[in-house]
Structures are given as structure tokens and as C-alpha cells.
Design brief:
Low-confidence stretches: 749-754
Oligomer: single chain
Structural class: alpha+beta
Strand order of the largest sheet: 1-9-3-7-5
Shape: globular
Radius of gyration: 29 Å
Helix content: 40-55%
Distance between the termini: 31 Å
Length: 754
């Protein structure tokens, strides 16, 4: 073990640490540099004339205005004679109902002629009242982040090099140390640019990140309804769509990265997490580092995973794919280990963690994976209903529910409390959206942009399939079956062959379900439940991710058999390397084709460039609410009600109200959990759904007082939060106790106490 003193005794390392410290101090000093308003409204050159001079940095332009027309104007900043990429800026739309708008921009060089430009598009009612530019410290924060990160990585590499010199690390361990991040970096090739490829879901997820970052800056770490959506009306994304892992890109945004950069960094983080967890799962599952790297390569470079990231920008789905290997590892242990083995009952931990990660990323993936596991449990019913196995399965379900109660309880509560637009998907027929048989053997995946297989067939098809590497593994396994047909096998080989056959069977079943030949439409017509399930699935191709992890597990088992074989020219490891090489080559083609053929891309430097209504199909919009109503507007008062001193921040509104009787409809989208009360007396006021699903507060005769309306959720949601927190803390405590007990640190008498 390398001691800290030994590391610091090296003269070159001490010099390196001093350089790192100086660079860090330079970044810290930058945090106290110029910030705040640097150009005020008195600078007329800011809005007209030759403009103003500014040094390189990150700034926010602020425009004060008034307009009677909605989103017909925009503003930003321009530089007349700047060099290429001197200025990075997106224009921000000007909306009716708000009187100040911000636009963040980046200067990569000093400029002398910058000014604010307003595109009025013929809006006669637009009146400019002033403008200012505010300097921020984002540039220094980003610099500090990179210096600290690179310094830590460099120090870790040096420490590993010193350890290796003292006690050489095995080749397999070295392969894992460098191979796992190398695979993650390779799958990240399309983000090594200064833009993002446009995917159908990209703007929606960028808006989720921005809304979460905004709430964190206000001190609301676990907001249920994000106020940034729908012109301040709010939208229940966090209730219906888990965003725990979006804290990562949200923190990137708070650090100072642009929306573009934060998203690309998040993709890199996801790829690293996917590669590491895949390696850990397959290595621990099959007790072999080579198989761990083999499975890691196949899974990290899956064509469908790459497609999810760059073609669709399906953030929830590709984040959930981080945790599918944990499910595979967990249930493989449950069904292959002997129930009498000591510690068998703890086998619930891995699948429970896997399910937790998936639930917090993408509920639909959890439904698909859960459905397949239920089928597996019924298929292996003899093992399922063994006492200890059934106990482990019950613990998996129970502990997963307890750990995620804080999310599941509000999710189910709001889902049953109202009718939403996602209910309209129940009547959608999805069979025509399934893949063609050719997709299953589609090996040289191109970028592709078309998913209308029923109309255009394979022309410009999206890269949906299991890929050449997995097909090659299936072919090799068929060869093994033919070779060992009729031969005597060991007990271990029999178990491996049975597991392999089951995994291939499950994979083939799910692959068939993803095709256009599975009777989705007939099932939808047969039963209302199937119609709801089909509608929530939307695209049978989503099952490809579940099928792929089954096939990768089967490929790992085939890899174990490969390691036992010796060919004339290749060893078992040589065959594994050959399959990995095939995966790398074909994935490289897919990634390069994406970069060369995807012509739609976006560059976002500020949140204002995203807008506020990127709700895709508006699935979580209550029925009766129309998107055309979601504008910045004042509360609507009924007859007999007067209001004064109105102020709204996020999903909280304060106002002084006098009423004979009547109501006020506040510009907030009604979900169960809103409350209103008199700030002086604490008297609660009735809150119901108003017109266009606005929050309606009812007043009795003779009411007068200052009221507050805010979203508070339900009291039992907080109970669920406490249950989840207590469960997680209890499990962490139990894990620490078990670890120390195994090491012998607990239960042994100490010296002097005998």
C-alpha cells in the first residue's frame, strides 16, 4: 500500500502539486473579479450607436420593456466586427405579461462595439424602457472545475503508476482500469464537438435540466412542480418523470457551463457510469475480469444505446440503461446460486438498486423490465416458489418500494387524482411502428433518421438492432451446441448451457415483440388493459434495450465457453478480442456516420433560448387545460372580488384581496397539492380547479386580508419521503455493520478488555 508520505517525497510530484495549487488559487481569485452591473441603462450606446467595450467573459444582457403582443419580438447582443466565434449568443423571446428579460452571452475575446439588438418584427406596442449588462463569474468557476478535475485525475494516475512499480498490476486489471474509460470515451465521440445533435426529445430534457437548476438556485432541491414551464404556470414533470439523476447536469449549469456544455458533459458522465457498472456487473456475475470487459464492450457499444443517445436524445431511457446490467446480475445470482448458501438472502440488494436507478430515470423501462422478470419468474416457477428464493424476490419488491416511496407515492397519487392527456394514448395502435425482420440482421448501422418503417421500409432507417457483435456471439453459441451435441458435460457446463438457452429464449421473445408482426393492435382491441399498456409503450422498438441486455448476458456465457476452447490460430481470449474488435469497428462506423450525416444540430448558450413550452405530447397536462392559454398573464377575478399588491415568485403568489364572495384564478396549472391561506390569521381557503385548469381560490362573503397561494404537496408525501430516507440510512448502517463484522472488527475482544 502506498503511503501519503512516500507520494509527497517525490520531488517532481511536489513541483506538480505546487503548480496545481497555483492554478487553483488563480481560479479562486477569479471568483472575486468583476461581477454585477458593468453597463447600465444610462449608457445609450448599449442600445444604439457604436456600442460599448467589454473584456472577454460571460455576461447577461437584461432588457426592460413593455409589449401588448406575445412572442413576436426577441432581443440579444451583436458585435459589428468581431472575429469568428468572438460572440456566442442566442436571442431571447420577449413575452407579453413580463417586463424584464435576460439573455446570457459569452465573449471569447475583448470587443469594442457590442450593443443590444431588439428584433421587433413589426410589434407596434413594444416599448423599450432600458437595458443593462451584468458580468458573472461563470468563466472562473468553469476554469476552476477543470483544473481541480484534471489535477485529481493526474494525481490518481501517478499514484497508480507508483503502486504498479512497487507491486505490478495484472494485465487483466490494467485492461479494466484503462479499457472501461476508453470504451466510454469512444461512445462519446459525437459530443466531442461544440454543438448537440438534434433529437426529438432534446429540447424537452434541456428544459427539465434548466427548470431543476432554477429550483436549486432558489433552495428548492426536490421541487415537485417546476415553475419554469408553461409561462410560469408550472408542469408536473418531477412527479411523473424521475429527475434525480438530472441533478448532475443541473449542477453543471449552476457551476457555469452553458446548456449545450452541461448536456454534453452529462452524456459523458452517463457513458462512464454505463461502462463502469456494466464491467462491475458482468465481472462479478461471472467471476472473471476478461468476461467483465467483454460484456462491458458489448453493452457500452450497443447500437440501440448509441441510437438512444444521439438519434433520439432519450435521456430517461439511456440513463435507465445504466442500471439494466444490475438487474441481470442480481437475478442471475438469485436463480443460479444455491438457496442454502450463507448470505443468499442478501441477493435482493443488487436488483433492488437496479430497479431504484431505473425508476428514478424512466418508469416505462421499469415496467418493461419488470414485465420480463415476472415472465422469467413464472417460467422458472419451480425455483421461484422455493421458500428462500421467494423470500429474496419479496424482499426485492418490498425494499425497492420503500427506497422509492418518496417518488412512487406522489406519482400514483397524482396519476389517480385527475385525468391527463397521456390517457389519450390508450387508443393509439402501435404495431406499424415495430421493426422489420431485416432490422434484426441489420449490422452496418448508419446514422439513419427514419422510423416510419411501415411507409419507407429500410430506407434511411434508424440504427435499431442488436448489432453484428451479438449476432456473431449467437452464431458461435450455435457452433458450440452442434459441437457438444450428445457429449457428456460437467454440472457447471450444464448450468451454463441452461442459463444461456433461457437468456437467448427471453431475448428472442422480446425481439419478436419489438417487430411489426407481434399482434399489438389485436391485443389493444381485445382488452382495455392492453390498450393502456400499448399506449404507454408507444413504440415497440423500446423493447430493444431489454432484449439487448439479455443477449449480452448470453454472449458473456458464450464467452466463458470460448475461454475453454483452443482453435488452430486463436486462443479463447483471441476470439473474445475478435468479437470486441467487431463491436468497436461497427460502432465506429455508426458514430462517424452520425457525425457526418446528421444535419440538424443546436447550440444553446442560455436557458432563454429554450423557451417554456417544450412539453412534447403534453402528457402530464390535465385535461381541460390548453397550451394556448399558457401565457404570462395576470390573475382572473370574478365579480365581487378586488385584488391589490399582487406578487408571484415561482409557484407562490401573494396578494391583498377583498371579496363580497367569488374567486380568483391564479396563473398556475392546477395539480393536487395547492393550498391557500390568510397570512395573518392562518385561515385556509378552498382551492379547486378553475377555468383552463388554473388554480382557483374561493372567497367567502366579507373576506379581506393578505393571502398566499403556493404548491405544498400532500402531508403523506412527506411521510413517504421520511420512510425512504429511513430505509436508505438503515441499509447503509446494516451494510457498514456487516462489512466490519466480516473483517472481524466487531465481536472480538480488544486488548485490555479480556
Amino acid at each position: 500500500m502506498l503511503k501519503k508520505s512516500e507520494f509527497l517525497q517525490n520531488g517532481k510530484i511536489r513541483i506538480l502539486l505546487c503548480i496545481e495549487l497555483l492554478l487553483i488559487l488563480a481560479g479562486v481569485a477569479g471568483l472575486f473579479g468583476t461581477k454585477g452591473i458593468v453597463v447600465g441603462t444610462e449608457e445609450t450606446a448599449l442600445l444604439m450607436g457604436e456600442g460599448v467595450s467589454l473584456p472577454a467573459g460571460v455576461y447577461t444582457a437584461r432588457l426592460y420593456y413593455d409589449t401588448g403582443e406575445d412572442q413576436v419580438s426577441a432581443f440579444g447582443v451583436i458585435v459589428k466586427e468581431g472575429h469568428y466565434k468572438t460572440l456566442l449568443c442566442n436571442y431571447a423571446a420577449l413575452f407579453k405579461g413580463i417586463h424584464v428579460r435576460e439573455c446570457q452571452f459569452y465573449l471569447l475575446d475583448d470587443v469594442e462595439n457590442l450593443r443590444v439588438e431588439v428584433e421587433d418584427n413589426g410589434a407596434e406596442s413594444l416599448k423599450i424602457q432600458g437595458a443593462e449588462i451584468v458580468a458573472g463569474t461563470e468563466r472562473s468557476r468553469v476554469y476552476l472545475f477543470w483544473v481541480i478535475l484534471i489535477s485529481l485525475l493526474l494525481d490518481v494516475v501517478l499514484m497508480l503508476a507508483m503502486l504498479n512499480r512497487r507491486q505490478p498490476v495484472s494485465t487483466e486489471r490494467q485492461l479494466a482500469i484503462f479499457g472501461v474509460p476508453a470504451l466510454a470515451l469512444m461512445s462519446s465521440l459525437p459530443i466531442m464537438v461544440d454543438y448537440n445533435m438534434f433529437g426529438a426529445d432534446l429540447i424537452f430534457h434541456l428544459m427539465r435540466i434548466e427548470a431543476l437548476a432554477e429550483h436549486i438556485l432558489r433552495g428548492e432541491w426536490w421541487s415537485r412542480i417546476e415553475s419554469a414551464w408553461l409561462a410560469g404556470h408550472g408542469y408536473a414533470n418531477s412527479v411523473f418523470y424521475g429527475d434525480a439523476f438530472l441533478l448532475v447536469p443541473a449542477l453543471y449549469r449552476i457551476l457555469g457551463f452553458s446548456p449545450d456544455e452541461a448536456y454534453r458533459l452529462f452524456v459523458l458522465t452517463v457513458n462512464l457510469a454505463t461502462a463502469y457498472i456494466a464491467y462491475l456487473s458482468f465481472h462479478r456475475c461471472f467471476h472473471h475480469r476478461s468476461i467483465g470487459m467483454f460484456g462491458c464492450a458489448l453493452y457500452t457499444l450497443l447500437p440501440y444505446r448509441i441510437y438512444n443517445i444521439y438519434n433520439r436524445a432519450a435521456v430517461g431511457e439511456y440513463t435507465a440503461m445504466i442500471f439494466l446490467p444490475l438487474l441481470a446480475w442480481g437475478f442471475y445470482r438469485i436463480y443460479t446460486e444455491e438457496p442454502e448458501r450463507k448470505g443468499y438472502l442478501w441477493n435482493w440488494v443488487i436488483p433492488a438498486l437496479g430497479f431504484t436507478g431505473i425508476i428514478q430515470s424512466h418508469v416505462l423501462t421499469c415496467e418493461m423490465a419488470g414485465g420480463l422478470i415476472v415472465f422469467l419468474c413464472l417460467f422458472l416457477w419451480k425455483k421461484t416458489f422455493r421458500l428462500r428464493t421467494f423470500a429474496v424476490l419479496a424482499l426485492t419488491v418490498g425494499m425497492t418500494t420503500l427506497m422509492n416511496a418518496w417518488f412512487v407515492v406522489p406519482f400514483l397519487d397524482l396519476m389517480t387524482a385527475d385525468q391527463y392527456y397521456f390517457g389519450h394514448n390508450a387508443n393509439v395502435l402501435i404495431q406499424s411502428r415495430g421493426i422489420l425482420p431485416a432490422h434484426l440482421f441489420y449490422t452496418l448501422q448508419a446514422g439513419g433518421a427514419s422510423s416510419r418503417f411501415a411507409e419507407t421500409g429500410m430506407v434511411d432507417t434508424e440504427p435499431i438492432g442488436i448489432g453484428m457483435a451479438l449476432l456473431l456471439c449467437v452464431i458461435i453459441w450455435i457452433g458450440f451446441c452442434l459441437k457438444y451435441s450428445g457429449k457428456e458435460l460437467t454440472e457447471a457446463q450444464k448450468k451454463e448451457r441452461k442459463a444461456m438457452n433461457i437468456l437467448l429464449f427471453l431475448g428472442c421473445v422480446v425481439l419478436f415483440m419489438s417487430t411489426c408482426y407481434f399482434p399489438w393492435d389485436a391485443l389493444s382491441s381485445f382488452n382495455r388493459l392492453f390498450a393502456v399498456l400499448n399506449g404507454s409503450l408507444q413504440f415497440p422498438t423500446r423493447l430493444m434495450g431489454i432484449a439487448s441486455v439479455c443477449m449480452v448476458m448470453a454472449a458473456c456465457l458464450a464467452g466463458i465457453w470460448m475461454l475453454r476452447e483452443k482453435w488452430a490460430y486463436l486462443s479463447g481470449k483471441g476470439v473474445l478480442l475478435l468479437v470486441v474488435a467487431v463491436s468497436v469497428i461497427f460502432t465506429t462506423y455508426q458514430l462517424n456516420d452520425l457525425l457526418l450525416t446528421r444535419t440538424e444540430f443546436i447550440k444553446l448558450y442560455s436557458s432563454q433560448g429554450i423557451g417554456h413550452s417544450a412539453v412534447l405530447g403534453a402528457e402530464y397536462l390535465p385535461e381541460g387545460a390548453g397550451l394556448e392559454h399558457m401565457t404570462y398573464h395576470e390573475p382572473v377575478l370574478s365579480e365581487g372580488v378586488w385584488m391589490d399588491s399582487y406578487e408571484k415568485k415561482g409557484l407562490q403568489a401573494d396578494a391583498y384581496v377583498e371579496a363580497d364572495s367569488g374567486y380568483i384564478d391564479f396563473p398556475m396549472l392546477y395539480y393536487k397539492g395547492y393550498m391557500a391561506y390568510d397570512k395573518r390569521t392562518g385561515e385556509k381557503l378552498p382551492v379547486v380547479k378553475g377555468e383552463n385548469s388554473d388554480v382557483r381560490v374561493l372567497f367567502g362573503q366579507g373576506f379581506a386580508g393578505e393571502i398566499r397561494v403556493r404548491y405544498a404537496g400532500m402531508w403523506y408525501w412527506h411521510v413517504a419521503e421520511a420512510v425512504s430516507a429511513a430505509t436508505v440510512l438503515g441499509l447503509l448502517g446494516a451494510a457498514m455493520y456487516r462489512r466490519y463484522r466480516i473483517k472481524g472488527n466487531i465481536g472480538k475482544p480488544r486488548k485490555g478488555n479480556v
